[in-house]
Amino acid sequence: MLRGVALRPTRQRIALGRLLYAKGDRHVTAEILHEEAMRARVPVSLATVYNTLHQFTQAGLLREVAVDGAKTYFDTNVSDHHHFLVEGENQLMDIHGDHMLVSGLPEAPEGMEIARIDVVVRLRRKGKNS
Q1: How do beta strands 120-123 and 82-86 pair?
Q2: What's this model's pTM, rounded to 2 decimal places?
Q3: What is the rounded CA–CA span in Å between residue 76 and residue 64?
Q4: What is the pLDDT of residues 55-68, one digit of tens each?
Q5: In sequence order, which residues have a C-beta less than 8 Å from that of residue 63 and are 6 or more positions away?
């Protein structure tokens, strides 16, 4: 997979890739992946995890989902889709299928085109006040 996107398959990239993709489609933060790496005894710094996640994203292996500008998730499902965010739990879930229709988009500025639309639908547990 790494060679297919012109990334050198280093020991750390292979180990982090196994952790990312062994469980199917998922959403992780750099901190979550770093914690998983430590539990799996993969000697890697948090900075290396961040760098690797950004390299995988640039290569098209991951999709970056920014939430509130402060939290970034990395999604192993790179297809076009939207997300549910469970507030207070930092849980991101895919919205499956073509259940959303986004309309009324503004025209892109001169010389620009819309590359992608990311919709995050915020959820909270019933009975919780915000």
Answers
A1: parallel
A2: 0.84
A3: 9
A4: 999 999 999 998 87
A5: 57, 74, 75, 77, 78
